[in-house]
Structure formats: C-alpha cells, structure tokens
Specification:
Elements (H helix, E strand, L loop, with lengths): L11 H12 L7 E6 L2 E10 L10 E7 L10 E4 L11 E6 L13 H11 L15 H10 L4 E2 L3 E2 L15 H9 E5 L3 H4 L11 H11 L14 H33 L1
Antiparallel strand pairs: 1-2, 2-3, 3-4, 4-5, 5-8, 6-7
Helix pairs in contact: 4-6
The structure holds zinc ion.
The site of zinc ion has 5 residues, from loops.
InterPro entries: Ub_conjugating_enzyme, UBC, UBQ-conjugating_enzyme/RWD
Protein name: Ubiquitin-conjugating enzyme E2 J1-like
Organism: Ceratosolen solmsi marchali
C-alpha cells in the first residue's frame, strides 16, 4: 500500500507511522498489524493469546487509533474479538506505571503496545475500567471461538498470523519498556478532569511481578523515565481553565453588583 502523496511526509507522525508500517510488514506468529488502506492513522492488529494461559490458542483482533501527535501521544487500542479480559469496542490506554501513570514514551511503538497487550492479557482485571474478570473456563471457550472470528476489513483472523514460527525476540530495551508500561481503560472523564485520573493504575504491580521473574534488570527502570510530558500539558490546561473560570466569575459578580446598584 502506498501513502506517498496522500499525507504530509514531513509530519513526524506520518514519517514515524510509515517506518513502523515497514518494520511490521511481515506477520509473526505472535502479532501482525498494518494501517488501513485509506487511513494511516487507523491500524488493525491480530495477536495470539499468550501460551500457558487461558488465552492459549486464541487469536484476537482489534484496532489501533493513532492520535495526530503520535508518537508524542499514545495510541489507543480497541479489542474487537471477545476475550474475557478486556471489554470489546472500548479504548484501552497504554501508559507508564510508577509515579507518572499518564506518560507515554515516544520511543515506544505499535509493536511495544502489542507486546504490552499480550503481556497484560493474563493479569487480573481488578475492576479497572475496560477490564473483565471472566472465569478461566469462559476465557478458554472464547479463545476457541476466536478462531472463527471475522473482521469486516481483514477477513478470518485465524489466517492472518504467520505459522512459520517467525519470531522477533524481545530486546532488552523492550523488556525495560514492558516493565514500566501499564494498560488501563479509557476514562473519558480524564479528558476534562485530568488531575483526577492518576489513581486507577492497579495492574502495574502484577505485570512488574511477572516480569521480575524473567528479568533481573528491573531495578534499572527509573533510568528510562522521561519527564512527564502529558502531566505538564494537562496541568497547563487545568491552569488555563481555572483562570478563565475566575474571569467569568468576576464578570458575573460585577454585573450583579451593577444590577443591584441601579
Ligand atoms: Zn480487521
């Protein structure tokens, strides 16, 4: 597919997405993702359920919506295949865990997002927005059913992954990213009241725990914590709205005073 000429090739988002589309061009047996023919900012993906879990053997399909500011802002993931862990047709946000849960690292990519999604499937939902806590039997049944699931744009999803055991091993850097990444439902209130939304990261400890078993380097992770870009811009927005609210309040107060004086 060719996007040349259709998008501004100088836009960082376009450049980056074209590069990622090239890198992800070949399906692996774990995941496959590609932009829609008509929209570079909407991708469809397919992931294999992680082995030795209730999702083993399952194939799950979904959409990735990229914001115009990508990679400065994170992608949104939407699962479409019923799976028993994430609600379908709902945005799942990727964010960093720890002290700045709202931040996303521009060095992360669609591949990182998919790896994080796979890693998160077996973790407990703990009632987080967008999470489901179906029983193991229900999840196993859904994983079997998923093989017959069709996407209107992509066809039978069971045919989309490579079965040649094509693997791209997780690099040390990616392992670090996975240690710090967390997933949560899209709390729509967070757009308007961002200062309320830092609380509901429940899943990070579980993932970290799982990763610590495989990776003894986890204690190095603070090195890759960048400044919390999202948090800064959120608090700026908040200050602006506060200032405007004060101004409006002052004007109303003056009007009322005037009315009473007349
Ligand atoms: Zn599709």
């Amino acid at each position: 597919m060719s996007f040349e000429g259709k998008y501004n090739a100088k836009s960082p988002a376009v450049k980056r997405l074209m590069r990622e589309a090239k890198e992800l061009h070949d399906a692996t047996d774990e995941y496959y993702a590609y932009p829609l023919e008509e929209n570079l900012f909407e991708w469809h993906f397919t992931v294999q359920g992680p082995p030795s879990t209730d999702f083993e053997g399952g194939i799950y399909h979904g959409k990735i919506l990229l914001p115009p500011e990508y990679p400065m802002k994170p992608p949104n993931i939407i699962l479409l295949t019923p799976n028993g862990r994430f609600e379908i047709k709902k945005k799942i946000c990727l964010s960093i865990s720890g002290h700045h849960p709202e931040t996303w690292q521009p060095s992360w990519s669609i591949r990182t997002a998919l790896l994080a999604l796979i890693a998160f499937m077996p973790t407990p939902g703990n009632g987080t927005v967008g999470s489901l806590d179906y029983s193991p039997i229900e999840r196993q049944q859904l994983s079997k059913k998923s093989l017959n699931w069709y996407c209107d744009s992509c066809g039978k999803i069971a045919d989309l992954l490579s079965y040649n055991k094509v693997k791209k091993p997780i690099t040390e850097e990616e392992q670090h990213m996975l240690n710090t990444i967390s997933l949560k439902g899209d709390v729509s209130i967070s757009q308007d009241m961002p200062y309320l939304s830092n609380a509901d990261i429940v899943e990070e400890n579980e993932l970290r725990h799982r990763n610590n078993i495989n990776n003894l380097n986890a204690e190095n992770e603070p090195e890759i914590l960048n400044p919390p870009i999202e948090v800064i811009s959120y608090s700026k927005d908040f200050l602006w709205s506060l200032l405007i609210a004060i101004l409006i309040f002052a004007i109303i107060l003056l009007l009322i005073r005037r009315l009473f004086l007349l």
